[in-house]
Design goal:
Elements (H helix, E strand, L loop, with lengths): L1 E4 L10 E4 L2 E2 L1 E2 L2 E2 L15 E8 L6 E7 L6 E4 L7
Parallel strand pairs: 1-8
Antiparallel strand pairs: 2-3, 2-6, 4-5, 6-7
């Protein structure tokens, strides 16, 4: 999956990933997107809810119908800052 900013399409780095409302862990750490906004998950086929959260962005979720060798992009909206 790839996390990108809604307005610019730029990658969202270090977005934390959850699957079906459960944090996805890699060892002691929660799975997060890399510098390119990409995180790789091996999922079984079927329905899955995937969410990405990052500082400065609203949490974004999608329900997917997982099929073999598919990729998805999650669009993340920046949180408006008070002036």
């Amino acid at each position: 999956m790839r996390a990108v900013e809604k307005w610019t399409g730029n990658p969202v780095r270090n977005a934390r990933i959850s699957l079906n409302d459960i944090r996805v862990m890699v060892g002691e750490n929660q799975l997060a997107t890399n510098e390119s906004g990409v995180a790789t998950l091996d999922l079984t086929m079927g329905s899955a809810k995937i969410c990405a959260s990052a500082e400065g962005y609203e949490t974004a979720c999608q329900t997917l119908n997982v099929v073999a060798n598919t990729a998805t992009t999650i669009i993340m909206t920046p949180i408006a800052r008070a002036l």
